[in-house]
Each structure stands twice: as C-alpha cells, then as structure tokens.
Prior knowledge:
This protein is of the alpha+beta class. It has one domain: C8orf32 fold (Roll). It contains ten helices and six strands. The chain has helices at residues 4-8, 21-30, 37-51, 68-74, 79-92, 111-117, 145-151, 191-201, 203-209, 213-224; strands at residues 53-54, 76-77, 97-106, 121-132, 135-139, 177-186. The strands form two sheets. Strands 5-4-3-6 form a four-stranded antiparallel beta sheet. The longest helix is centred in the N-terminal third of the chain and has 15 residues, at 37-51. The protein is globular and about 45 Å long.
Amino acid sequence: MIDHDILTFLRPGQFVDSDHSSIHGLANRTIFGATTAVDRAVALYYAVRDEVRYDVYVDYTDPTSFRASGVLAAGRWFCLGKAAVLTACCRAVGIPARLGYADVRNHVTSPRLKALIQSDVFLRHSFAELFLLDRWVKAAPAFDRPLCERAGLMPPEFDGRADSLFQPFDTQGRRRMEYLVWRGSFADVPFEAILSDFRLHYPSMISDMHGIGEDFRKAVTTTAG
Length: 225
C-alpha cells in the first residue's frame, strides 16, 4: 500500500504538470520495454538529460518557463526546468517524484555568466528526487552530454539506486561544483520564492533576461501548435 504522503508526489501540479499530453508522450515513448520502476526512472533520466538542452539564458520572470510542459516544448532550460520535466515524467508513469533544491558554488563559472550574476554561487539549484526501492534518490539531469564534452566534464550517470548530483571535479581534477545549502524538498516548483531570491541576489540577470521571454513563448507556441 502506498503511504498517503507519497500520493502527493504522484499528482500533477501547476508546474509539474504530469497530466500534460507532451509529458505523457515523452514518458511513454521513453519507458517502452522497461520492466521495473528503476529501469523506467533511469530511461527517463537520460531522455531528459540529453533531449532538453541545458541553457541558463532564459526569462526567469515568466512562469511558463518553469512549467515542465513549457520547458519540454522549448527544448531548453537549465536545472530548474529540467528537474521539473524529469519529476513530471516520473509521475506520469507512476513513480513518486518531487523537487529538491540546494545552493551551489560553481568553481569554473563562465566569465559571461559570472559577469551577469556577479557571483559564482547559484541559488536554488534544482534536482529531482525519485522514490525507488523504498527510498528517495536524488537525480540531477541538468548537464546534457554535448555540454559536458565541451566543458571537459564526465556526463552525469544515474542507476536508480544511488544519488546522482553535480560532479565535484571535472575530468582534469579541477574543483567544479560545491553544494553549500540544502533547501529542502517540494511537491511543486516554488516559483514565487525562486523569483524573489533571484530579484534580490541577481538583479542584472533578471533585467537582462526578461526580454528573452518572448522568444521562449514563441518557441513553446510554435512547438505546441
């Protein structure tokens, strides 16, 4: 019997819209032939990791760009959106899933991004937490394989049994990612809290990225249509 608390993480949400047709389409296509929940989760992880391109240059003020179906339609986003897609896909196939958040330091932030946010600390980094084999397992599908290859990173792997988070070192042994503060787990994207944090700590990013929203909405509309 599934615990009533677990049922919360099987239902669709405003942003984790696991009942959307596009989410069901990706999920059902991806898990074809998978016989266990672990196999399905692993297949979904790799699909989201590599089929949705990692891109931090999006409009953070637009709720559409945080919604799983919107991210999937645009085909790009970074950790916040990609975690929502993986969470939604897992719920769509009966795997309890929720969103985890943490603040991280990127020791090799690109000069362009560091100038934009004026920091190497990224607030509210997001990953999925999947209920598999009677325990919650963390999975961060943010970095796609082509990006990792360009950046000299080993692509993150996931076996459904152990946590898969950002790599602390790159392939040359340089410090890469450092988890600083764990922000907890959520059934849906805490959009207002994220936007509030970003407005306070990354005002230049919010200002510069706001205009990108129209391009994102056009991409979503064109794909959906």
